[in-house]
Amino acid sequence: MTIDGCQDSVVIDVGDTYLESLGRILQLDVTIKNVCPGKRVALAVILTEIGPNGDEYQRGMKAITIPAHDSPNCRDVLVKCIKFVLPEDLDVSGGMPEAICNPRNFKARFIAHNIDTDYRCCDSVITVL
Fold this sequence. Notes:
Blueprint: E1 23-35, E2 41-50, E3 56-66, E4 75-87, E5 105-114
Antiparallel strand pairs: 1-4, 2-3, 2-5
């Protein structure tokens, strides 16, 4: 493309182009119920995509440490903004793979447990002979 020396502008039709590297971002919030004070929580999020025949395809896993709270009693803890990046080239919906128009179905599973405990092992020493 050339713009001549005395031209202020030029209009050129360069033809068609396509969107590239399409994807979506899924953001999840979850409430962990009845978290005791002073206890950190380990939270896992497992994300799968559901295909048209009900098959599941892995899409991501996150492991998050939730800090302890100092409320006087157990309380619910809201965890916000757990994000997953979902490229369209992994779409299993059966629609057009080069478009972001297909509805996609996902399943999220959560596992949570306390990290901290007041349990202490016995002071006895075990010797294996």
